[in-house]
Write a structure and sequence with these properties.
The structure holds 2 protein chains of 2 kinds. Chain A starts with a strand and ends with a helix. Chain A has 17 helices and 15 strands. Chain A folds into 3 domains: 289 residues, no CATH class; 111 residues, no CATH class; 59 residues, Arc Repressor Mutant, subunit A. In chain A, strand 7 and strand 8 form a beta hairpin. By secondary structure, chain A is an alpha+beta fold. In chain A, the strands form 4 sheets. Chain A has an 8-stranded mixed beta sheet. Chain A has a 3-stranded antiparallel beta sheet with strand order 4-3-14, with no helix packed on it. By secondary structure, chain B is an alpha/beta fold. Among the domains of chain B are: 258 residues, Alpha-Beta Complex (Amidase signature (AS) enzymes); 76 residues, no CATH class. Chain B is built from 15 helices and 11 strands. Chain B has an 11-stranded mixed beta sheet, sandwiched between helices. The longest helix of chain B has 24 residues. Chain B is globular. The termini of chain B are close together. Classes of the chains: A alpha+beta, B alpha/beta. The interface between A and B is large, with 28 and 44 residues.
Amino acid sequence: MQWETVIGLEIHTQLATQSKIFSGAPTRFGAEPNTQACAIDLGLPGVLPVLNAEAVRLAVRFGKAIDAEIAERSVFARKNYFYPDLPKGYQISQYEHPIVGEGRVEILLEDATVKGIGVTRAHLEEDAGKSLHEDFHGLTGIDLNRAGTPLLEIVSEPDLRSPQEAVAYARKVHQLVRWIGISDGNMQEGSFRMDANVSVRPRGQAQFGTRTEIKNINSFRFLERAIQFEVERQIGVLEGGGQVVQETRLYDPGRDETRPMRTKEEANDYRYFPDPDLLPLEIDAAFIADATGDLPELPDAKRERFHARFDLSEYDASLLTGSREQAEYFEAVAQESGAPKLAANWILGELAAALNRAGSEIAASPVAAHQLAALIRRIQDETISGKIAKQVFESLWAGEGEVDAIIESKGLRQITDSGALDPLIDAIIAANPEQVAQYRSGKDKVLGFFVGQVMKQSQGKANPQQVNALLKEKLKA
Amino acid sequence: MHDKTIAELRHDLDTGQCSSVELTGHFLDRIARLDPRLNSFITVAGEQAMAQAAQADRTIAAAEAGPLTGIPIAHKDIFCTQGLRTSCGSRMLDSFIAPYDATVVERLDAAGAVLLGKTNMDEFAMGSSNETSHYGPVRNPWDTDKVPGGSSGGSAAAVAARLCAAATGTDTGGSIRQPAALCGITGIKPTYGRCSRWGMIAFASSLDQAGSMARSAADAALMLQAMAGFDPRDSTSVDTPVPEYVSRLGADLDGLRIGLPKEFFGEGLDAAVAASIQEAIRAYERLGAKVSDISLPNSPLSVPVYYVVAPAECSSNLARFDGVRYGHRCESPRDLEDLYKRSRSEGFGAEVQRRIMIGTYVLSAGYYDAYYLKAQKIRHLIADDFRSAFEQVDIILGPTSPTTAFPIGSKMDDPVAMYLNDIYTIATNLAGLPGLSIPVASAGGMPVGLQLIGNYFDEGRLLNVAHRLQQETDWHRATPPGFE
């Protein structure tokens, strides 16, 4: 039987606010346990939540970025369950009336087609604390620093049809939240966590199969593998005559498998009801305009523009718009150098490789955009060759100064003066009579040998085109 | 000294006839001597009170005193007090000391009031007789075999017995007005959102409201003046200016339109109470008020609606008391579930557990629509009834409670009979309206309370209407025998 995979994702992204969603405690990562939790985060008696307007602003930005309807009125609800790292015994979330309604995210598939993925909703909620089971013998430690951290939960429609599509969508959302500055997207620190709802059905069947939910995945690689495993597991169950049980599962990267969570933890009836401590959240057009007025050009628009205006391939344009920093870097280099294709090649080639080796990101690149642009200009005006340019790039990377100064001080200027090249070429021809004879007998390939020799002896500074022309001329005789 | 109103005490303090230290010492002495009969205080803060009094005397000497400077008061033990135990009448919080003051506490403290201690109450404010307290029942000073009402029974008994000049209370379904009625004092529950709920331990967040309990409407006005106002720490507090309550007292009632809801005078109302209310109505007519019959057709549903909404909210509000971070924790728990179950079973009394279970049930999947959602819809209808009524009248008048105080133990086995005590008070909480109770008679030696309900934020009028009757009558001056 042919099976079709159906996937929907729930993504929890931490909003980049200074303070928590319902208290004034800071949200900084990595502080000593329980030093960033105030009376409100601890759920002491008599305390009350007050909504952080900045969290609302960031949620509105996201809504606008995915072209979703922003609810004029949304409602906070309590999700009730007991757990030691949930201080109030309930999580404040949004249930029936989320702040962001239906929207859409476009992903680029491997065959270069674009697929629209529906976003059902996105809602504001607070994070729970952390239970630490490892460090205490027979006891569990509770760290409430994270309790009350603002999250935006982004729920997709079950529109994804493969693990690869799921990853493409997740990456797209990840790109977007960072792009519009609402989250740092740091996956190691838990700022971007994914739950995958996975089911399979016979191809052609309209009805969805029974789904399982894989919780708390914090890398794109694990997301792909977890879904892949789960799809195969479900198909195995169904083909073996069994039935998929609707349950929550966890992915274990060590064993590369998903396992059911203890059923007790998911047998909860959360008893949602509107939080009487918080009034319905009402936002007007002015607030939305204020929150979204400075939204940058979005990645899709930028990609299309790069493709159309700079004549880059869809693929290169999409790589360059992988992050806002990279896109802006590219645009600066392209504009200053006047050579967008060369700029793209350098950024995706030499610079990307160097950054990768250094484990760094473009925002921290030691080669500034104006420096790379200057380097490209020097290639364009034939001051240096492409090969020498790599040498100059390395000097730029090492912080040895500006482009022109490096070229001068190292004497890297391309030799374009035929007066300087003539004696060099003549000497090489004189020194290699055998090869000259071969060339003249019709073995054109030998020309490469001569070019190589000239380049070598000029330490790469000769202009290859010019050398070619001069050699052809002199060998003809 | 203890029989004087706040205004009289203010005069004595400002003219040097007594100091706040003397006054505070006097009340502390009365508490030590008389409260063993009543059990109205859970915690007495003698040392702290004397220090506050000394500070107040310095303020008075510097001629910087406000209306409440140096006046000894008490807080219901539901208000968090920094450094002083806040038990909420529960074993769960027997050792809880808050690291912050409730806004109401903070404001009265800033006004210079002296805090004598924390008053007894039904556990987590759940009760109408003050019998559910972990610290034992409070006794009614008019007859110590009878209940003082609840849940602010400690505050009501302490004010009635002249153990403090005034006290704070909270009212979720009548918890200020009903004990005020049963103990013969004046108590006002303002509009929902008028006083901040910050630091006030939540029972049912959409209904809870702080208010003042005092010997007269004028004293209650002085207290409320200091307590009320917007607080950015409470999202449900309302940013509306607080009018001058006291300066308005004494305005005449000529032409005041008073409505009598027929639903408040039907079956279940004690005949003696009914007669007393009729007497008060005649007094108001003599003062120039125009009395008419009105109807609040949905108000008979207020008790069942309340006993869905309030337990629902309480089941969630009390989830934080889990034995993990503070409060009662059972001995040597076997595992997490055992920790939760035993800590909560041991820490909460029977009534609190009953309400948590009711609340959990009505919010459960499959029951939510039939109970919680339906109750919320009826709640809107109840509020609409009042809205229509206030198009015709300025004040709604009726009994506060169907009977006078009943014997301790007489209703503890019949929760429904107990819940019906609040049949006249609950609707105002569901609508968020201000309500007030004043003593207007004595029936069989026990005080009878009259309830006045006002429109939103019309506390000023409400207090004046109460005050005008108190200018004509002396019921609020009556002192329980043995506490003179």
